[in-house]
Amino acid sequence: MNITESKPAGRIKLLNAKIASQIAASEVIERPASVLKELLENSIDSGATQIDVTVQRGGVQLISVRDNGAGILPQDLSLALKQHATSKITSAADLSGITSLGFRGEALASINSVAKLSIISKAIHQEQAWSISADNLVVAAHPLGTTVSMRDLFYNVPARRKFLRSERTEYHHLEEVFQRIALSRFDLGFSLTNHDKLIKNLPVCIDAAARTRRLSNLCGQQLTTNSISIDAEQNGMRLWGWLGSADHARSQEPHQYFFINQRVIRDRLINHAIRQVYQSLCLDGKMPFYCLYLELDPVALDVNVHPTKHEVRFRDARIIHAFLTQTLTAALAVAPDKNIKNYYKNDKIPKFKDDIFYISVNEKATKKLLKKNPHAKNLASFIDFRTSYVGLGVDRAVACCFEENAVVIDAGSAI
């Protein structure tokens, strides 16, 4: 039987508002971690300096985010739950150069359509706090700021709820979102509580040492110890953060974080630039840890590309890619290898092994080494070990160490 004859053509009709909102929510709310991301971004945009997160049962039963931000006026609370209602933008012109994390006005409406949502807030210059739940607005008790609580995610969409993973898996995704947001804003304090147990308490970072401590707290001491700090500026762009050693690259996905103007980003252009830098240093597709921050003019990128705002579009992608690859390559070129022993104690000359030779930054030891080294004629004039590897007459360097006054170079392909 002809398929076209088996069923008459359906009529086109408008979906009711409830179904339409649940469909729209699927673009923003995939799992509990999606809810946490949206609520954390709202708290940051409110000007909060302290954000406290409480979760239960992997975030399916409860996600509560409390902040000390500017709060929401009582007359705006019901409007905040409507689609396309936002305080971030007012015209199409505002889409060029967005600085807030949120701007679509979809988050709270989407969450409200697939979960039980309540908001308690006290705005600046208001004597009382107000609470809204199921469209009921009542007076409440709350300090300056806002608490948004989401309960029973997908209670009214069983088809979506059955696709959620185990509590442990969903909690892992919650932790990952919390971690990324906490790394994006060192100037804010964060806490995470799971089933009434305090998991993370991260105070505001007031200096570089405090930032490193937060990084170690969230990513592990070993990764932090085996990484280098970078900070470079060029043509109005700044790239800073931490780069992991290629020697500690992992086959499984390591901690890899990239932020643009304090926004968490997962972008193909960024990933390509970083992989290009490490491809000659890491074998078998392994990738190292990195936590990098790119700062540039907001007008130079478009964040209105994807509902989750993880992707961006650059006005001049070529310049961004070149800046990243050049800066990271230069940083790795002068990075100290903390695994290299000090071969130059008491100016002792190490034994040469195969085609690997060692050069000391110490002038006296260098002369002795160059005299014994068969490749000395290619290297005698090389003074500054922080210049390009091209100056060495070799294709690549396997390691570089300055803290021990030594540099180790692969001379297998010397000219």
Word description of this protein:
There is one protein chain. Strand 4 and strand 5 form a beta hairpin. The protein contains 13 helices and 17 strands. The protein has 415 residues and is an alpha+beta fold. An eight-stranded mixed β-sheet has the order 5-4-3-6-2-1-7-8, covered by helices on one side. A five-stranded mixed β-sheet has the order 9-10-13-11-12, sandwiched between helices. The chain is 30% helix and 22% strand. Helix 3 runs parallel beside helix 7.
Provide tags for this entry.
single chain; 415 residues; alpha+beta; 13 helices; globular
The number of distinct helices, counting runs of at least 4 residues, comes to 13
Gyration radius, in Å: 27 Å
Assign the structural class, choosing from mainly alpha, mainly beta, alpha/beta, alpha+beta, or little secondary structure: alpha+beta
Label the overall shape: globular
Can you list the strand order of the major beta sheet?
Answer: 5-4-3-6-2-1-7-8
**How many strands, which pairing sense, and closed or not: the largest β-sheet?**
8 strands, mixed
Helix content: 25-40%
Number of E strands: 17
- Distance from N terminus to C terminus (CA atoms, Å) equals 76 Å
Estimated share of beta-strand residues? 15-25%
Low-confidence segments: 337-363, 374-415
The helix/strand series, from N terminus to C terminus, equals: HHHEEHHEEEEHHEEHHEEEEHEEEHEHHE
Overall average residue pLDDT:
76
